[in-house]
Amino acid sequence: MQPVDIIIKNGTILTMAGQAGIMEDSSICIQGDTISYIGKNPDRPDSATKIIDAKGGLIMPGLINGHTHAAMSLFRGLADDLPLMTWLNKYIFPVEARMDADFVYTGTLLACAEMIMSGTTTFCDMYLFEDEVAEAAFRAGMRCLAGEVLYDFPSPSYGPLEKGFEYTENLIRKWRSNPLISIAVEPHSLFTCSPQLLIEANEMALKYKVPLIIHVAETLSEIAEVKEKYGRRPFEHLEALGILGPHLIADHCVHLDDMEIERIAGNNVKTIDNPESNMKLASGISPVSKLMEKGITVGLGTDGCASNNNLDLFTEMDTAAKLHKIETMDPTVLDSFTVLKMATIEGARALGLEDVTGSIEKGKKADIIIVDINKPHLTPMYNPYSHLVYSARGNDVSHSIINGRLVMENRQLLTLDVDDIISSARKKAMQVREWVG
Amino acid sequence: MQPVDIIIKNGTILTMAGQAGIMEDSSICIQGDTISYIGKNPDRPDSATKIIDAKGGLIMPGLINGHTHAAMSLFRGLADDLPLMTWLNKYIFPVEARMDADFVYTGTLLACAEMIMSGTTTFCDMYLFEDEVAEAAFRAGMRCLAGEVLYDFPSPSYGPLEKGFEYTENLIRKWRSNPLISIAVEPHSLFTCSPQLLIEANEMALKYKVPLIIHVAETLSEIAEVKEKYGRRPFEHLEALGILGPHLIADHCVHLDDMEIERIAGNNVKTIDNPESNMKLASGISPVSKLMEKGITVGLGTDGCASNNNLDLFTEMDTAAKLHKIETMDPTVLDSFTVLKMATIEGARALGLEDVTGSIEKGKKADIIIVDINKPHLTPMYNPYSHLVYSARGNDVSHSIINGRLVMENRQLLTLDVDDIISSARKKAMQVREWVG
Fold it and tell me: Which CATH number fits domain A4-61+356-413: 3.40.50.300, 2.30.40.10, 3.40.50.1240, 3.40.50.620?
């Protein structure tokens, strides 16, 4: 019998596997990268190399950020409360045009520190210089589905579009057998990508059996533009191009008509809800409860820090649960268990990672966090799901294990030097200030 | 010259007085309960009894929770995601019917611990057994505007209504010259209080020159009920009873027509927005940007923990800023400075405490918090207001001073024993479980 590397004991386990599975006073054993035992009586509990005392806290799957632009952490608070086009044209685009690989690497490390410290173990990224994103995530010890953004214009990262496809193919080859990093093909949106680009991107995704990820139906102006250009609504357009399918992850999905919802459901397209970003940019509210009624997989994302302005999935869950109640004027929709699934097992399903992560099950990779509940704002506790969604905050997470590796212990990051990261990020911010004048 | 008791140095001061006042590398001196100096060159800085190093953090007025039911912290997560009437009839009412003074005292201490630890220094409370609320707040060292809830039914606290008026009068007399506690007259709502009750309550408020506080226009069913009973909308009804005025604090104000908004503005009625509770109970969205356009004072509240489920005003600010952008589909409304004012100086104005607290000004009482910004999720910092609203969390607050007294230092509560409070709250929760079966 193989020795146990890590045992987590003395906590309440929320498996998030199938129906609500709450196991009190239970332990989890980890061998290498894998969960080897869950229950009350682990074999030789003291023989583990590392014993973690959860101190009566909640032991749960690490959270999954279904859509973000990690390096935009360096634009946190740079420009808020502005009309969308002012925000983009005066701040975001001019800065992105001057960014380099090191900028993205620094910003992604900063984001990884924030994400681990707020309970996220997997994130799905779309940005420029994604090889640096993957490198930073790997250094942080995070699970990451990364993809280089593709659009009709030249990119500060790879130059002309054909180089973008090359860049993506290189990413796929480079990271193919990495235990933490996987790659997707990521055209930006229907209003920045020609039909030809979208078709080629889809062919590449199918060829390599990787996800195809795109922003869809985020704003009303996007719908108007797509309609004017192609005479169709966004999901009709995607269908006409032949690229609806279970490998497609559609981010945002704010403005949908019933026909489009049928198309998403019928083709098993995955969707990611980004409630806080959609609120902050005044984009609208995704009809998430309707999507779920149709059996559509909905994950949860924070979007980038420039439109949120944080990567805390706990507060994002809180907002999701509340926003969709207001959207429907029904306090019973998106109950806390449903919302916690969006950020765990359903998020994993959306990213095609449901066999790897998103729940605590024997044989799955060990992506596990511990939430410390010995605090006034988490007292008393009648229902752990409610607490995690409505009361907890990212900084209530005490420990994080990703792929069997302890990456945070008692809120100390073990894979990254936080002071170094903060100091490097502040230097990059000085550049940003110069760039925007 | 009097000696300085506390000096806070090495931080960026956000005064929240008048237009944006940001003072970098500045210090604050406190003598007794009062701010005696703000600036770069305090006199004899080392002579202070206590020197607090803000370590480059943000020094700002303590936050003001404009509307809560503190003791409902003991119902946190007891019942969520339910239709309003199930929630009230099956859970909240049966438990409240069995509550006693000790229950409310314990719940309020728990809430005070949570509030101080998340940066709140003043709260406005409406509940039963309010003398215990006042006692708990005083023990915690918090500033509190308290009022016993009055309605047509017998109360578990004081019994029949006439005793409620007596109870309130006794509160006013008992706490009249207390430096932290003040008292309001608090009829519950238009659908639980007869016109006669409302008129008497108003007379008492005017007689003692204290605020009159009431839930108004929270739900559509309330509007319908008031219309059916009295043939008028809520603010028309209040006007007909002669009780609109600058001493009236109207909590919620979700469903208002333009005529009512004119009445609120014309009579200088104060309002408190409770965005998270209004979302969670699917009550609706208060037209806050419209109220502000008319010059109406709008404070911010969390409402009770049973419908939120936390007392963190930082995340409440975040939600307020985002929710009202979605309500208006305009990303420029409720910018971060405006929202921070709701939780500080405007909140103080709403409660009639603007000469005492809500901003950092020489001569005002010292209600001051320090926010630690040396964290990944608060890096980099281009705009402190943005960070406080969109990125910070309650547990980023490191220090709290209320009325010149240091009540939290490096996240250690100095006025309350947190372990004791958690343990007492857990015992009360066991009772609650029995009560709801």
Answer: 2.30.40.10
